[in-house]
Amino acid sequence: MKIAIAADHGGFNLKEALKKHYDNIKLTDLGTFSQESVDYPDIAQKMVQTLRNHDADLGILICGTGIGISIAANRCKGIRAALIYSEESARLAKQHNNANIIVFGGRTMKSEDVIQYVDDFLTASYEGGRHQKRLDKLELME
Ligand code: RB5
Fold first, then answer.
1. Measuring CA to CA, which residue among 21, 62, 17 is closest to residue 43?
2. CA–CA separation, 131 and 43 (whole Å)
3. Does residue 26 surpass a pLDDT of 90?
4. What are phi and psi for residue 105, nearest 5 degrees?
5. 40 lines ligand 1 (CB under 6 A)
6. Which residue CA neighbors atom 3 of ligand 1 most closely?
7. Rounded to the nearest whole angstrom, what is the distance from the C-alpha of residue 76 to the centroid of ligand 1?
């Protein structure tokens, strides 16, 4: 699986920590590359384009709280960005929502927790069935 990661300045440190931890997985880093202030909609847009180009199968997005960048990504057609906050929400974001972007807060979450959540998401499987009917309804709302 190809995974891309991107963050604004509020998520920069967490992005770097995840890259360091997952040195066995190819994580494509879409930026930002310093703590200089940037706008999270631009970062979300870059990730969406990467997924649409099939340059990644899954995105990891990070801003200060995870909220702004979730709002931005979820405005885009075909995107199901899930702001993860627990091990259970990580599993369910895959099992029920088949999220194509998982989102974290660089200022609100500890890196060791986020690593656990990423692992939980990656080892879960989409259940389909009644959940697919709901994802189909989401598409009709776009
Ligand atoms: C940037 O200061 C901050 O607003 C952003 O990272 C994010 O938390 C917005 O939701």
1. 62
2. 29
3. no
4. -105, 115
5. yes
6. 64
7. 19
